[in-house]
Amino acid sequence: MSAETISTIILLGSFLLMIFLRFPIAYAVGLSTVLCMLSMGQPLVTLVQQMVKGVWSFSLMAVPFFITMGVLMGTGGISDKLIALANSLVGWMRGGLAMVNIVASYFFGGISGSASADTASLGSILIPMMVDQGYDADFSTAVTITSSCEGLLVPPSHNMVIFATTAGGISVGALFMAGYIPGAILAIALMVGSYIISVKRSYPKGEKFSIKNFVKQLGTSFWALAAILIVVVGVVGGVFTATESAAIAVIYSLFVSVFIYRGLNWKGVWKALESCIDTLAIVLILIATSAAFGNCLTLLHVPLKAANLITSISSNPIVIALLLNLILLVLGMIMDMAPIILIATPILLPVAQSIGIHPVQFGIMIVLNCGIGLLTPPVGAVLFIGSAVAKLPMEKVVKATLPFYICMLIALLLITFIPQISLWLPTITGALRL
Q1: pTM more than 0.85
Q2: Domain range annotation of the chain
């Protein structure tokens, strides 16, 4: 057995072992990298250099700003307004509150960019509301957690920024524009599933649609939705970079939350910033350690070996695309989203490109796969949050979510095999040139 093979086994074997032993993911990535470098005879100062190099990026400055924007808007009193807007739009349908939940997640996700924030914020309002109107608690929770994944696709999403930085040379603006239609496809798939279940269980309808009420709620929600326009239009139009747009969005979010909606006072702002620091510390440590981990993968030629292994199984592009999704889904069951993006992208992106998948399309695929992983045990963070908010056993929530897994997988397959779902909008807006 060659020294390179032994080092590869040490790197990946120790990492997987620590994951199953429930080590914090950043420690698992960092410690496995240290063991690998020692086995290769590499000086540990290289580890520090690679970690610094991993976070030494202007583009990554957008990540803390987007996280801060999401927390400020999420705690600034906009949840009720977005729910009212969604209710005026789709509440009239059979299972109206389920539809409201899904559409509200699309709106809220475009502000928070976080499935966890979506579940905690909207779920705490909508789950009790749905139960009071005759919906089953497990169904209400399943709708809430699955629809929260729309926020990972709808810009601005800090996970898109992480992917763009990891992939190298990918336009953040193109990724932002690419997320809208896949997010809508996911929402429609979930709405179809919800409607079928609602008809079967005779869940109630809401009030009839009123254009007057819709315009009124749209006006009330305008200040919140304008934050998305500032970011997306500014980046795609070339007015400012993703980092600059994120900084402007933070100032705007602070103004709206404190002075317009008045959902936050200055004491609440400091608490929100404390929450941002906690989240940001985790994300940046992961980015730093994953950069060193990725350097070891490159030195050991793991991406090339993985590509050869996958293509040796089959030369059929459809089979390879399905294998890529399967790998990402399995990773999603045992790892959080950010480390999957940071570790899997350098390995799997070349394989995806070899079968004609555009990097922007692959970015959407990896984000949705990771989103599904957030809903699957044993590590599914959103699954745990939903269970805690609804005060239900995780097993009951998983059982109720099974039909929605099917809806999400259908959306994933459409995004995988119909490139224009992801590429059409960024192409016609000029954010992407094919």
Answers
A1: no
A2: 58-287+301-428
